[in-house]
């Protein structure tokens, strides 16, 4: 490193050093800013409801048991009509809209409008059948943000107080990660409607196997 021989040269040399230091500080700040930007603004840890065995999850990762529990809660709330599905189901769709993808909401609402006579004066509820314990085989990861979930319920329906249906049904669901404000959807998951062939009696599956 050469030494400045004059006062002016010394000042210029100090200025160059100062500029280099300032430049290095700007680079350091830029690197820190990039590192901060890459970090999630809110660190989310998804705690699975199945505590019968330990599970290690990374921040932001959604475990299959959590997806399964969400599916059960959503199906029960969406399909519960204490007296008249003609009115209750429309309210359910409205209340659960933040837990449905836009396309699924439109499909379900359109199905209700086209089949309004099937909903009027009909009560409906999904009853547990003793298979509520999480089974990894019931959840298949389709990609990073989508899952295929299979749940079963005893579907019970009454029309004007007369029981018209009481049968075990199988529901194949598509659940997706739904990045909406947490105050609107704390689960950060949404129902993306039924997978083919849709809801069907469990006996149909058994007949096909036979």
Detailed description of the structure:
The protein is α+β, with helices and mostly antiparallel strands. It has a domain at 64-209: Roll (Nuclear Transport Factor 2, Chain: A), CATH 3.10.450.230. Helix content is 40%, strand content 23%. The protein has 6 helices and 6 strands; from the N terminus they run αααααββββββα. It has helices spanning 7-38, 64-78, 85-95, 102-114, 116-119, 202-209; strands at 122-127, 139-143, 146-159, 162-177, 189-194, 200-201. Strands 1, 2, 3, 4, 5 and 6 form a 6-stranded antiparallel β-sheet that branches. β2 (139-143) and β3 (146-159) form a beta hairpin. α3 (85-95) runs antiparallel to α4. It is elongated. Residues 205-210 have low confidence and may be disordered. InterPro entries: DUF2895. Pfam families: DUF2895. The chain crosses the membrane at residues 21-37.
Q: Report the order of strands and helices.
A: HHHHHEEEEEEH
What best-fitting shape do the alpha-carbon axes yield? elongated
Tell me how many strands there are: 6
Overall CATH architecture of the domain at 64-209: Roll
Which topology of the domain at 64-209 does CATH recognise?
Nuclear Transport Factor 2, Chain: A
Helix/strand structural class: alpha+beta
Number of helices: 6
* Average pLDDT metric: 85
Keywords: Membrane, Transmembrane, Transmembrane helix
InterPro entries: DUF2895 (IPR021548)
Transmembrane segments: 21-37
Protein name: Integrating conjugative element protein, PFL_4703 family
């Amino acid at each position: 490193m050469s030494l400045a021989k004059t006062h002016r040269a010394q000042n210029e040399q100090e200025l160059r050093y100062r500029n280099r230091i300032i430049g290095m500080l700007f680079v350091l700040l830029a690197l820190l800013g990039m590192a901060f930007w890459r970090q999630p603004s809110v660190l989310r840890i998804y705690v699975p409801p199945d505590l019968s065995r330990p599970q290690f999850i990374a921040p932001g990762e959604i475990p299959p048991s959590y997806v399964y529990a969400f599916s059960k809660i959503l199906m029960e709330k969406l399909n519960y009509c204490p007296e008249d599905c003609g009115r209750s189901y429309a309210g359910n769709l409205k209340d659960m809209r933040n837990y449905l993808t836009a396309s699924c909401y439109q499909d379900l609402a359109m199905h209700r409008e086209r089949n309004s006579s099937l909903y009027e004066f009909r009560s409906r509820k999904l009853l547990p059948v003793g298979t509520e314990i999480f089974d990894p085989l019931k959840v298949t990861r389709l990609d990073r943000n989508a899952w295929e979930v299979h749940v079963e319920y005893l579907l019970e329906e009454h029309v004007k107080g007369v029981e018209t249906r009481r049968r075990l049904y199988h529901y194949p669901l598509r659940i997706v990660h739904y990045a909406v404000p947490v105050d609107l959807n704390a689960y950060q998951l949404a129902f993306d409607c039924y997978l083919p062939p849709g809801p069907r009696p469990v006996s149909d599956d058994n007949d096909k196997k036979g």
